[in-house]
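Internal ticket - ligand job 281, 2-acetamido-2-deoxy-beta-D-glucopyranose:
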Amino acid sequence: MSLVLLLSIFMVAAPMASLASAGDFYSQVDITWGGERAKISNKGKLLTLSLDHASGSGFQSKNQYLFGRIDMQIQLVPGNSAGTVTAYYLSSQGPNHDEIDFEFLGNLSGDPYIVHTNVFSQGKGNREQQFYLWFDPTKKFHTYSIDWSPQLIIFLVDDTPIRVFKNLESTGVPFPKSQAMRVYASLWNADDWATRGGLVKTNWTQAPFSASFRNFKANACVWSSASSCVKNNTSLGTNAVKDNVLSNSAQKKLKQVQSKYMVYNYCTDFKRFPQGLPPEC
Ligand SMILES: *[C@@H]1O[C@H](CO)[C@@H](O)[C@H](O)[C@H]1NC(C)=O
Ligand SMILES: *[C@@H]1O[C@H](CO)[C@@H](O)[C@H](O)[C@H]1NC(C)=O
Ligand SMILES: *[C@@H]1O[C@H](CO)[C@@H](O)[C@H](O)[C@H]1NC(C)=O
Ligand SMILES: *[C@@H]1O[C@H](CO)[C@@H](O)[C@H](O)[C@H]1NC(C)=O
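stdout (structure tokens):
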């Protein structure tokens, strides 16, 4: 093996305290909610969450992470999924928690899901952006990723960036960078707001609803103590980012997605922020 190759393998591997083996839910997550409604099958490769009138269900990663790239393949609730929300997010604990959210808002059969995103830093969110998808997310699995470095948070769908949240601490906007986060997923009833703002309710004759997860990958620093995760500019394991700058092609894709598929952007909601838009906008 050439020295260059060896070196590059070392450099890729070095910043990670550990790289969990992908796709074994038994070793990677705990089911935390809903009892039998959450099921791991296929030798740990598949996790199915379900929702009925009595309860939803959910799971969380055993590890906490500080920076890195988290990937999950998800096949969303098919058919009439109106009122249901499938959530997949990173979150720390405590009153001033940080959080990076994907929430998939269901809809009537044939009507489009909405991908709802948000970023909380130091307990404060209110940074929603929403998108339609360019495919039917119930037909097969698609990959939803969060790429989190000290400089950037990138939301990706099948490797296409849909949202970037930059570290603008220099302008006084706190950025999630010192609290480790777990990965969480859940399926629950939110028919008071999810579909057409709450107009369309969950049709319980269709229950149980279910969503499936596979190929959870955390190419990320596993947090064990404050000093164990290197806090520098390295964005781990992404194709879209180099030296914390989106490549030109990624930047172009981001613009295309935002112009074609964005449904809501808090940064253009002047009615909601009559005193002025948040500084990061
Ligand atoms: C960035 O991370 C690399 C890889 O772990 C490390 O060698 C380097 O010292 C770090 N740089 C800074 C500025 O922390
Ligand atoms: C559901 O479908 C309606 C009608 O096409 C659309 O306005 C709405 O944005 C869709 N998504 C959700 C989550 O309400
Ligand atoms: C709920 O689903 C059932 C079975 O498909 C259907 O007959 C009924 O009309 C639906 N209810 C509503 C309120 O749409
Ligand atoms: C890390 O990023 C900051 C801000 O973008 C920059 O000022 C600094 O030079 C970078 N450090 C390294 C080691 O690249």
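Auto-summary: The longest strand covers residues 209-222. Residues 1-20, 232-237 have pLDDT under 50 and may be disordered.
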